[in-house]
Design brief:
By secondary structure, this protein is an alpha/beta fold. The protein is built from 19 helices and 16 strands.
C-alpha cells in the first residue's frame, strides 16, 4: 500500500491576475509533490482560489460585475497556471464551492460548540489589501507597509469573535514539541515570540449589510464569515471533510502521524501558524505537520508577495516567452528557499544560456551525437562513475528533504560539470579512431549519467526530463535549449 502524502499551497485572492510571487509558491510545492509521487507516494496536491472578502467585493463593484461572475473569470486565470507552469496538482478548490461553504459552516459550529465564538462591539484599523486588522505598531505613517497605496479603513460594528487568547499555551506547546513545525527555524522563533507576547481574540464575521460577499454565518443571516476564517478551512474541505472521514484521515493524518504540509509565504505567517492552528485545536482536528515559508521576490524594485498587487510581467507571459522549464528553473535555482530574492530578466537570460543552453543542453547534444555517429550500444557503467552518481543522489535527496531546491539543482549541475570534464579529459572523438573499446565504456558512462540527470531533474523541469529520456531511447539528439542571442 502506498504512503499517503498531502500538500497544499495557500489560496491566492482573485482580485488580480496571477503574478510571479504566487508562481514561486506553487512551483516550489509542485517540486515537492512530484518528488514524493516519483518516490512512490500517493500524493494529494491542493491549490485553488480565495474568493470572498471585502477586497474582492470592492474589485467586483469597481469593474461593475456580479461578484460570482468576477470570481469565475479570475479563478479560470489561476487554473490556467496548471498548463502554463506544467503543474501536477490534482485538486483545485474554490472557496465559493458549495461543499466548501458547507464545510466552513460545519467548522464554525464545532468552534462554537467548544465555547470559542462570541459576539461583541469593537472598533479597529483594517487593511483591505491584507484582509487583516492592524495595530498602530504594524503601520508606517498610518499605512500598511505591504499595501502602502491603500487607505487604512476603520471598522466599527458588532461582530462575532474567536477566542484566540484561549490558545496561547496550546500553541506554545505545539511549537515546543515540534521544533520543525515551521520551516525555516527563524520563522518558528518569530511566530513563537508573537504568540508568547500575548494573543488577542479576532473578529470572524462581518455585517452582511456592509459586506454581503461571504459565507453565511450559521443561524445568523445578518453576518457573513470573515474571509480568513472561511478560506483557511479549504485545507480540510478539499479532502472531503467532514463527510469523507476515511479520505480525510488517510491524507491529513493524525497527531502521531501527520501527513499535511502547507506551503506559504512569510506574509501569511500569523494566519497559517497561529490563527489556523488555534482554530484546528478548537474544532478537535489534528494540526498540520509543518508550514514552509518562502520570502518576497524583488521585481523591478517592488517587493512581491502572494498578496501584492503589481502591473509587471506575470508568469504566464514569462513562460510563453522563455519556456515553462526556463521559468521554473530560474525560480528554483536563483531564489533561495525561505529567503527574499530578486527577479531579473537579464539574470534569467544569463542563467538560460549558461546553465540550460551551454550546460545541460550542450552536454546531451554532444554525447548523443557521438553515440549516434559511432553506433554505440550502452553497457554497464564503471564503478567510479557509479560512485559519483550515488554521491550526487545522496546530496540531492538531502537537499530536497530540507526544501533546498537550489541546492538540489546545484548537485545536478555538479554532475553535468563532471560529465563535461569527463568528455574533455577522455576526448571520445579521438578514441573513435584509436580505441573503440574504451570509447564504448566512456560513452556508456556518460549515457548512464545523463539518464540519472533526467530522473533527478524531473520534479524541477518535468518537460526537459521527459525530452532527455526520449532522446536517450531513440538515440537522436535534438536541441533542448536554443541560445538566446542579443
Amino acid at each position: 500500500m502506498k504512503n499517503k502524502f498531502y500538500i497544499t499551497t495557500t489560496l491566492p485572492y482573485v482580485n488580480a491576475s496571477p503574478h510571479i510571487g504566487f508562481a514561486l509558491e506553487i512551483v516550489q510545492a509542485d517540486v515537492i509533490a512530484r518528488y514524493r509521487s516519483l518516490s512512490g507516494d500517493e500524493v494529494f496536491f491542493n491549490t485553488g482560489t480565495d474568493e470572498h472578502g471585502l477586497k474582492i467585493y470592492q474589485k467586483a463593484i469597481e469593474e461593475k460585475k456580479d461578484p460570482q461572475k468576477y470570481c469565475n473569470e479570475y479563478a479560470a486565470k489561476f487554473d490556467l497556471l496548471k498548463e502554463k507552469l506544467n503543474l501536477s496538482y490534482n485538486n483545485f478548490i474554490r472557496t465559493t464551492d458549495k461543499h466548501h461553504i458547507k464545510a466552513a459552516q460545519g467548522f464554525w459550529k464545532k468552534c462554537e460548540a467548544s465555547g470559542d465564538i462570541y459576539k461583541k462591539n469593537y472598533k479597529t484599523k483594517y487593511c483591505v489589501g491584507c484582509e487583516l486588522e492592524k495595530t498602530d505598531s504594524e503601520l508606517v505613517d498610518d499605512k500598511c507597509p505591504i499595501h502602502p497605496d491603500r487607505k487604512i479603513e476603520i471598522i466599527e460594528e458588532e461582530n462575532y469573535f474567536f477566542r484566540f487568547s484561549k490558545y496561547q499555551k496550546s500553541l506554545l506547546d505545539l511549537y515546543e514539541k515540534n521544533p520543525d513545525f515551521v520551516i525555516p527555524e527563524h520563522r518558528q522563533k518569530e511566530i513563537y515570540n508573537f504568540v508568547k507576547s500575548g494573543l488577542q481574540d479576532f473578529s470572524i464575521s462581518r455585517l452582511r449589510s456592509k459586506m454581503p460577499w461571504g459565507v453565511p454565518v450559521p443561524g445568523d443571516d445578518n453576518h457573513v464569515m470573515y474571509v480568513w476564517f472561511d478560506a483557511l478551512i479549504n485545507y480540510i474541505s478539499c479532502l472531503g471533510w467532514p463527510e469523507d472521514e476515511k479520505k480525510f484521515n488517510l491524507f491529513w493524518g493524525t497527531k502521531k502521524n501527520p501527513n499535511a504540509i502547507q506551503v506559504a509565504g512569510k506574509d501569511n505567517l500569523r494566519q497559517q501558524t497561529a490563527m489556523w492552528q488555534a482554530m484546528l485545536i478548537s474544532a478537535g482536528i489534528p494540526n498540520s505537520k509543518q508550514v514552509f515559508i518562502h520570502g518576497f521576490i524583488n521585481l523591478g524594485g517592488q517587493k512581491v508577495s502572494k498578496s501584492s498587487e503589481i502591473s509587471l510581467p506575470g508568469p504566464i507571459e514569462l513562460a510563453d516567452k522563455y519556456g515553462i522549464d526556463t521559468l521554473r528553473y530560474y525560480l528554483l535555482r536563483e531564489i533561495l528557499a525561505c529567503e527574499d530574492g530578486d527577479f531579473s530578466l537579464e539574470r534569467l537570460e544569463q542563467r538560460y544560456n549558461a546553465d540550460l543552453a551551454n550546460g545541460l543542453g550542450n552536454l546531451v547534444a554532444r554525447v548523443l551525437t557521438l553515440v549516434d555517429k559511432n553506433k554505440i550500444k550502452s553497457k554497464k557503467s564503471d564503478r567510479e562513475t557509479i560512485k559519483v552518481v550515488e554521491k550526487t543522489v545522496e546530496n540531492y535527496r538531502k537537499a530536497i528533504k530540507g526544501f533546498g531546491f537550489n541546492e538540489a539543482l546545484e548537485e545536478i549541475w555538479k554532475l553535468i560539470g563532471f560529465c563535461d570534464k569527463y568528455v574533455d579529459d577522455n576526448k571520445p572523438w579521438e578514441l573513435a579512431k584509436t580505441d573503440k573499446k574504451k570509447l564504448e565504456q566512456v560513452l556508456s558512462n556518460l549515457i548512464y549519467c545523463i539518464s540519472e540527470i533526467a530522473d533527478l531533474i524531473a520534479p524541477f523541469l518535468p518537460e526537459t526530463g521527459e525530452k532527455i529520456k526520449n532522446q536517450l531511447e531513440n538515440g537522436k539528439s535534438e536541441i533542448l535549449f536554443p541560445r538566446i542571442e542579443k
